[in-house]
């Protein structure tokens, strides 16, 4: 599990995928989310604007990212 520090109250899912390096472009992040390839706290997330907060876990391509 990789811990990723955020400095704001929340971050949107598509922005988080770019922030942690899972996606290099916003359009790429949008595609991953809309195709159902990303899980947030164990559930498939299809809203690219979903707000993530400290303590949430994002699963993508056999990686788990925990927001701290």
UniProtKB/TrEMBL annotation:
Record has RNA-binding as a keyword: yes
Pfam families found in the cross-reference section: S4_2
Keyword Mitochondrion: no
InterPro entries in the record: RNA-bd_S4-rel_YaaA, S4_RNA-bd_sf
Coiled coil start-end: none
Key words, A-Z: RNA-binding
GO molecular function annotations of the record: RNA binding
Protein name: Ribosome-associated protein
Organism of provenance: Clostridium algidicarnis DSM 15099
């Amino acid at each position: 599990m990789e811990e990723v520090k955020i400095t704001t109250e929340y971050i949107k899912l598509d922005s988080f995928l770019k922030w942690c390096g899972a996606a290099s472009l916003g359009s790429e992040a949008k595609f991953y989310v809309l195709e159902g390839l990303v899980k947030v706290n164990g559930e498939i997330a299809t809203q690219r604007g979903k707000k993530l907060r400290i303590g949430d876990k994002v699963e993508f391509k056999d990686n788990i990212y925990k927001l701290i």
